[in-house]
Amino acid sequence: MPFPILRTPLVVISEIIGLLEPNEIVTASLCSKKVRRLLKNHYQRRKPSKWRLTMFSWSLVDIMTRTNKNRTNVMMARHISELPGTEHKLIEINGYICTFERDIPVLYFQDQVFGTKLVVDYVTDLFSLDIYGLTTFRNGLWAFDWINNRQEKLLDSLGLSKNPSYVLNKDKTVDNVLIRLPCIVYRNALSSDSVSINVNVSHNVRFNGKLGPVDVNLFDSNAHWVTCDYLMNCNAIKLFVSFSRISELDLNSFLRHWRAGGSPRLAYLKVFFASLDTYIENFDQDLEIVKTNEVRRFRVVAEEDVEEILEDYSIQRQDGVKATISCEFGYFTMIVWHVDGNRL
């Protein structure tokens, strides 16, 4: 029996497709070759240019339609050994076993790297999209060369993360990968929207390398290895550092560097300290920091992501640009008020 939507006028079909979420579109495309062709033709005519497709080297594909809050997992590959029991309904698609979990299709393969490539190729072909971002882990660096060989466009977003699928690897470190990170970024994304790092690193490792230019640089956990020299070298607009061991002395050095014209692109710096008892309150006199009590609002990343900040201190660069400093127990915030409203 023909799928009813295939007999529907094209204008109506386009309206229906526009109401579907990306994961629903991928699922619908698996119904038949005709439905897949219909959906593919639709996105060839109306390419979703604002959508951002991210590949995770542990075999997941997601799509961001508007902002980070609008991310949807759309397809996944797993090793055949992870095939669920008979309580799950199994179907076969193009010769591969498939289940549906959390509203997305999951395909099973003997070779998971092959499976990852297959599901990424399927989704990018369906939506006529390049891979926008890659999040990988210590065993997934193969994905960089694979992406560079399949598309001309450089990656806009890079992430180095712990693989959530492997609990036994949660304590393994990636010291060697971290040391190579500047080279990886330079080779694969000369100017990136974001670089995020969420990995385990040995306690004695410190990172002084250069990353950037990048819009957003996020160190999401255990960033004890981020040094003051890195803060000075980092060519980022917005920089987030979690579980930091940066000292009050380090921050004074960084502020002195900034006043002299260093880090000219920086608009936002947020440091979350490893100890919640850490409180920055002593600033060197030569920094000419002034105490204030003004309340201001700042768009952090997305349009709707606005932070209200109590202006504890004000500091001025030698070229006249001012910045707000806010100090609370456990974190330090600095916002630079560029003349263009931080829309760099």
TrEMBL record:
Coiled coil: none annotated. It comes from the Eukaryota. Residues 2-54 form the F-box domain. It holds the Pfam family F-box. InterPro entries: F-box_dom (IPR001810), F-box_Sdz-33 (IPR012885). Signal peptide: none annotated. This is F-box domain-containing protein. It comes from Caenorhabditis nigoni. The lineage of its organism: Eukaryota, Metazoa, Ecdysozoa, Nematoda, Chromadorea. The gene is Cnig_chr_I.g2589.
